[in-house]
Amino acid sequence: GIDKEFAEDGTPTWVVLVDVGSTSSSAALVRYSSWAGKEGGKKKYHGQFEIVDVKWDETVGGDTLDMLLVDRFVKEFEEKHSADLSKTPRSVGKMRKNVRKTKEILSANKEAPFSVESLHDDIDLRSTIDRAAFTDIAKDVFERMTQPLRDVVAGLERFNVTLADIEAIEVIGGSTRVPGVKDAIMDALDGRKFDVHLDADEAVAMGAGLFAANMSTTFRMRKFGALDAMPHGMTYTITPSDDFTSSEPTTLVEPFARTPLAHRVSLYNRTSDAKIVVALDRADGSPLPPGTETDQVMIIDVTNVKHAMAKHNDTVGKMNVYFDFDVHGILDVTRAEYVVEVIEYVPEKPKKKKANNSTNATTVGANATDVETNATTTPDETNVTEAEETPAEVVVDEVEVEEPPKMKARRRVHRTLLDVKISGLPMEPLTETQIESSIRVLGDLRKKDDAKRAQEAAKSNLEAYIYSMRAKLDDESIQEVTDEEQRTTLKDLLMDKEDWLYMDGADASTEEFKKTHNELQTQGDAMEFRAAELMRRPETIKKARAFIEKAKVEIETWAEKKPWLNATHTTELLEGIIQFESWLDEKEEAQNKLSKTETPSLESTEIKITQRPLEAKFKKLKNKPKPKPPKVETNTTDTNATDANATDANATTVGGQEDRAASAGEAADGEGVVEEDAENIAEDVDAATNNDVKDEL
Q1: Torsion angle of the four alpha carbons 348, 350, 354, 357, in this order, in degrees rounded to the nearest 10
Q2: What per-residue confidence (pLDDT) applies to 291?
Q3: N or C terminus: fewer CB in 10 A for the chain?
Q4: pLDDT for 565-600, tens place per residue?
Q5: What is the pLDDT of residues 523-543, one digit of tens each?
């Protein structure tokens, strides 16, 4: 379903998968649907699958059919030779190997032969069996093989689905090639045809890889929801039980629960330690998962309850145990704690209340906090007549009064971690010592793997060089620079090392392979080098002589065309080129005296290294630009018209003197500039030459 589109309205697509393998048979009901996600801020739908029902029988498979045929031929042998082969494991093993061939032949033919030589006491067994007889003796096995499929079909009504709603029924497994198994599957489907589009081995390998990549955060792939399921539920039992805790099994995880999930088990008014036994729920009579020998999942011992109570004056609380059930169907205990609730009475914060106090107009408060004060009168106030008296004004003063504090109840929860010990696992966790030992073992294995890879690489390189060099010895380029004796010697050596590589040296060390490779490569590289030089050297000499002729001609013209160049450096360059020409003549003459099969005395690289400094100096001087003439500044002064002639005359006289002085200074400065430029050129050329020589080497 990873490359299919499903309805966006949530309508599911139902598929049944049937697997009849060598040792077990199973069937599963799968629901495909779509779920909405967001990509780039836009709503997008992705596919997903969910396992909703699984049935299996791990006691019946293709091997069961093999044993039926074995039993039939054992009885036949016993009738003919009065010997019970069932008590002879070696004979039974021979028969099992041959009945598989017979079963495969019966899948395509109506009759198949069966024969085993020297089955028992040098007695051969030869017999035949037809498909009808095989189907008759295997009828009950065919029914058992398809019983998981029948159970899944019978349970469709729990999901409000009928067999007609199933879009596809895919069958995999080697045993489904047996005609009797095919007929039994069709009977379980009420005559409906099934699909055979998947290869069992390929489907399992590809599916496991995609499922792992889909869960991984390292790989990126098309989004696809994968909801596997645990067909069994899980229950837990508490011991010792008390008035608040039952000893009966209680559901911890429902069958086919969606994962991951977390669950908390609370034991109220707990005053003692607890032992929790988690087991698979088999109340419906379902068999154990394949490869499982017991329904027990784990035993959890939670201790240190008394110590947790003592921390809070022996207050009774509750025990919480937290479980985690991950997407792989693995149950774990994350922590356990003792929870105590304490009620404390604490005063509330005082509330400030405003009070009103009244006095007469003639009464003045002596203190701001007093409720009443004595009034004082002045002589003027006592002379007031009754007629002049007016109604008294009421003055209101606001005084803050604190009420007595009230007590309130405050609930506080104290949590104390308890000790948790897990045991009874199918595989106990490794100790620290075992982990360290495993790390050392893995380190040693990694070193051995690296050494093995290095050995294989050295061996492969040696083998490749032997084949490659042997083929090159027939090339015209190699034959031109070698004689028959040299080629025969190397061919014999290559043949000798090849025989050693496949016989005595097959398990040689990496160092031996590399040493042998270097010995062969020393001789082979010398031949290849002579062949390469035979092609490169003439072209390099030709280019060098072309440079010499070109440079000598141009340097002769520089005295006229480039008079600003330093004559000393020009002469030195010309002498260097002449020396290079003489050196090249001597080297070429010596090389011409040697035969093509001898080690060359003149190499193309040597010519390039010697020529390159001269080319750099030549290019530097050739590209040296002509120096710019110095700027002459003239000062002009505006005067009256009557003084113009006198000013012009003076300016002419002075100007002539200044021109002559400037010419003399220019000549002197020019010579200094040439010398300074020549020094800079020499330094630049030397630096460039050194760098070029280093690069060439």
Answers
A1: 120
A2: 79
A3: C
A4: 898 999 999 999 999 999 999 999 999 999 999 999
A5: 999 999 999 999 999 999 999
Residue 204, SS3 per DSSP: helix
* Other C-beta atoms lying within 10 Å of the C-beta of residue 99: 23
Q: Give the rounded percent of residues in the chain with a pLDDT score beyond 90.
A: 53
pLDDT band for position 1 (50/70/90)?
confident
Six-digit token string for 276? 């929790």
What pairs with residue 237 in β-bridges?
Answer: 277
Among 41-55, 280-294, 445-459, 501-515, whose mean pLDDT is lowest? 280-294
Instruction: List the structure tokens of 126.
Output: 């030869």
Please tell me the distance from the alpha carbon of residue 14 to that of residue 167, in angstroms, as a whole number.
6
- Residue 657 CB coordination number (10 Å): 10
Q: Which residues contact 690 (CB under 8 A, 6 or more apart)?
A: none
Residue pointed to by tokens 């030992």: 437
The strand order across the sheet containing 233-239 reads: 250-253, 233-239, 274-281, 296-303, 419-423
DSSP letters of 119-164? EETTEEEEEEEEHHHHHHHTHHHHHHHHHHHHHHHHGGGGGT--GG
> How far is residue 550 from each of residues 198, 472, 544, 579, measured CA to CA in Å?
77, 40, 10, 15
Place of tokens 């985690």: 324
Determine the pLDDT at residue 353: 56
DSSP string of 328-379, one letter each residue: TS-EEEEEEEEEEEEEEEEEPPPPEEEEEEEE-TT---SSTT-S-------H
Give the residue among 147, 158, 132, 170 at the shortest CA–CA distance from 17.
170
Q: Is the pLDDT confidence value at 271 over 60?
A: yes
Long-range contacts of 95-101 (CB under 8 A, 24+ apart): 95/70, 95/119, 95/125, 96/66, 96/67, 96/70, 99/66, 99/69, 99/70, 99/73, 100/66
pLDDT score of 484: 92
- Nearest CA to 211 out of 327, 45, 58, 325 is that of 327
Dist. CA 669–CA 400, nearest whole Å: 102
Beta-bridge partner residues of 28: 17, 54
Beta strands in 161-311 (DSSP E): 166-172, 224-227, 233-239, 250-253, 261-270, 274-281, 296-303
Position of tokens 């004004």? Answer: 393
**Mind listing the pLDDT tens digit for each residue in 196-255?**
888 877 888 888 888 888 888 888 888 888 888 888 899 999 999 888 888 899 999 999
Buried b (16+ CB within 10 A) or exposed e, 109-138: eeebebebeebbeeeebeeebebeebbeeb
What is the chain's alpha carbon radius of gyration, rounded to the nearest angstrom?
53
Q: Which token pair is 534?
A: 């035979």
